[in-house]
Design brief:
The chain is mainly beta. It is built from no helices and eleven strands. Strands 2, 4, 5, 6, 9, 10 and 11 form a seven-stranded mixed beta sheet that branches. β4 and β5 form a beta hairpin.
């Protein structure tokens, strides 16, 4: 079974930086896209950043120029570098991966989330 595990969430001061990691375990699959989502208390889950199989990246307007999504295919790991953090960035951040198994089955997997808290 393919599993995702986020790490790196922490309490940080406004203006600080954090680097989130998402480790993917399993085998016999390829990535179609990997995404970071976040959900703040009382808010709907929103898409923060996406990286596609060809390396194309997209960002939500609220994080553009502050966050950077990247991946290391050899290690099956995705990262989200977050700079100039704001209190509005406070949320649980979730790793998401759209994958295709070698058998031809398309799957979407989610991690359990990691909490980022940005103080004023």
């Amino acid at each position: 079974q393919v599993q995702l595990a986020e790490s790196g969430g922490d309490l940080v001061q406004s203006g600080g930086s954090l680097r989130l990691s998402c480790a993917v375990s399993g085998s016999d699959f390829t990535f179609n896209a990997m995404n970071w989502y976040r959900q703040a208390p009382g808010k709907e889950r929103e898409l923060v950043a996406t990286i596609t199989s060809d390396g194309t990246t997209t960002y939500a307007r609220s994080v553009k120029d502050r966050f950077t999504i990247s991946r290391d295919n050899a290690r099956n790991t995705m990262y989200l570098q977050m700079n100039s953090l704001k209190p509005d960035d406070t949320a649980v951040y979730y790793c998401n991966a759209a994958i295709t198994m070698y058998a031809g089955v398309n799957l979407e997997e989610w991690g359990q989330g990691t909490l980022v808290t940005v103080s004023s």
